[in-house]
Specification:
- With 67 residues, the chain is an alpha+beta fold.
- It has one domain (1-67).
- The protein is 33% helix and 18% strand.
- It has two helices and two strands.
- It has helices at 19-23, 47-63; strands at residues 30-35, 38-43.
- It has a two-stranded antiparallel ribbon.
- The chain is elongated and about 50 Å long.
Amino acid sequence: MDAMTIPDVWSGQDRMLTVEDMENMPDDEFRYELDDGVLIASPAPSNLHQLAVTRLSIILSAACPAE
């Protein structure tokens, strides 16, 4: 499977998906979310993205007043 190809796990579904359906999703490089019963699949964030988020959080926390 190509890294940018979302798996065709739930194609052709004629019903809203549930949390129970989500528990049966494959453990792969995609992040799965439900939005009003609709499956949304996106690639997991890269390490560089995670590093940028962490650094931004530190900078924002330091800039916030204690109260």
